[in-house]
Design goal:
This protein has about 375 residues and is of the alpha/beta class. It folds into three domains: about 70 residues, Orthogonal Bundle (Arc Repressor Mutant, subunit A); about 120 residues, ATPase, nucleotide binding domain (Nucleotidyltransferase, domain 5, 2-Layer Sandwich), CATH 3.30.420; about 160 residues, 2-Layer Sandwich (Nucleotidyltransferase, domain 5), CATH 3.30.420.40. The protein has twelve helices and 16 strands. Strands 6-5-4-7-11 form a five-stranded mixed β-sheet. It is globular. The two termini are about 30 Å apart. Bound molecules: zinc ion.
């Protein structure tokens, strides 16, 4: 029995997706190179390229130097074919951005939220925000929320900052918006952005650490985000540093967050008679030994926590992000020293440690990328 109509359609979708993927990830190339890399015969490729050009998913981009003869026309992915919207739900506001298909922010808007907002209230705000941002073809919306998120089922299992438990997000939201919606833990969204467009690009295995009000981690293994059984992977802030230590907001004692988050720095700042962390940082840069030691201690604790992750997962790189990175000069040297000290195995000393590249925009770009990446999953159906 030969292939059915359905089989052929699937194969076609697969091949279309393959061509678009090659152009998205490897940049512009000639038809000859595309045929070579995709393994598709030139005749089949020509038809498919013609269709993709007509749809606007790919475009011709000038000519390339060729080995003698005619110069070949280059084909490239068209990031303006459509856009997606990325959203970060915070305690007091929604941040949103419309992002092109190459991760570039086109428009953005911040919308305030009332105290302790209900899920429906937040969805309604998101709906208005997406309408405000909507221009041309919008493929979908991705939402990043802090806390425990089961992204495969689209459920926010627990968000302390919103006091939400077991809230269905993607179902109600996609019904409200009329386009597909995704939800993800905010640090995972940031990690995805760094993997696709930022510091994580060269690595198949890396961990993105965020330092600030909390301490989080996004884990990329074999090039994919690792979620754990129900989205709880990467809760680095709550690994135990000292079971007899001070109480953490999670109810346990001596969590990493107690020693290396903004809460720690604030407490120490007040103890040393500084108004806030910024004042203490300034004093440290002006040579105040006590202030310097405080940041160094914080860096050392963070390094100890990160070292556990390095020993567990053997990543190629640690990518550091989060709002406290503005004081990286004050804690990063101690952090690095601690991570590399007595590294086991010794090869782990080759670990790359680098700063995230996208800053706070990474949260929005990553959330938007949830929709983008899903759209380009194989097979890529015709529009
Ligand atoms: Zn804790």
């Amino acid at each position: 029995m030969g292939p059915t109509k359905g089989d052929l359609q699937l194969l076609r979708g697969h091949n279309r997706g393959l061509i678009v993927d090659l152009l998205r990830h490897r940049g512009p190339m000639s038809r000859t190179k595309l045929s070579h890399l995709s393994g598709l015969a030139p005749s089949g490729l020509t038809r498919m390229v013609r269709d993709l050009l007509a749809e606007g998913l790919i475009q011709e981009q000038g000519k390339c130097c060729s080995h003698g003869g005619r110069r070949a026309v280059l084909l490239g992915f068209n990031p303006s074919y459509a856009s997606t919207v990325g959203i970060k739900v915070e305690r007091t506001r929604i941040r949103a951005a419309r992002v092109d298909l190459a991760g570039k922010i086109l428009d953005r808007v911040d919308v305030p939220l009332p105290d302790a907002p209900s899920p429906d209230g937040v969805f309604e705000r998101i709906g208005e925000t997406v309408e405000d941002l909507r221009r041309g073809r919008v493929l979908g919306v991705g939402v990043g929320i802090s806390g425990l998120v089961d992204s495969s089922r689209g459920i926010d299992l627990y968000s302390p900052i919103l006091a939400w438990r077991h809230v269905e997000v993607t179902g109600p939201l996609s019904r409200l918006l009329g386009i597909p919606a995704w939800v993800e833990n905010d640090v995972n969204a940031l990690t995805l952005a760094e993997r696709l467009y930022g510091a994580g690009r060269p690595f198949r295995h890396f961990v993105c650490l965020t330092v600030g009000e909390g301490i989080g981690a996004g884990v990329v293994l074999q090039g994919e985000l690792y979620h754990g059984a129900f989205g709880g992977a990467g809760e680095l802030g709550h690994i135990t540093m000292d079971p007899q230590g001070p109480l953490c907001r999670c109810g346990a004692r001596g969590c990493l967050e107690v020693y290396a988050s903004d809460g720690y720095l604030e407490t120490q700042a007040h103890r040393l008679d500084f108004t806030d962390i910024a004042c203490m940082a300034k004093a440290a840069r002006n040579g105040c030994e006590l202030a310097r030691t405080t940041f160094a201690e914080m860096g050392r604790s963070l390094g100890q926590g990160a070292k556990n992750v390095v020993n567990l997962l053997n990543p190629e790189a640690l990518v550091l992000g989060g709002e406290r990175m503005e004081d990286a000069d004050l804690f990063l040297p101690e952090f690095e020293h601690e991570v590399r000290r007595n590294a086991f195995p010794e090869e782990a000393r080759d670990l790359t440690i680098l700063s995230a590249e996208l800053g706070a925009d990474g949260f929005l770009i990553g959330a938007a990328a949830l929709a983008t990446e899903s759209f380009f999953q194989l097979p890529l159906e015709a529009a």
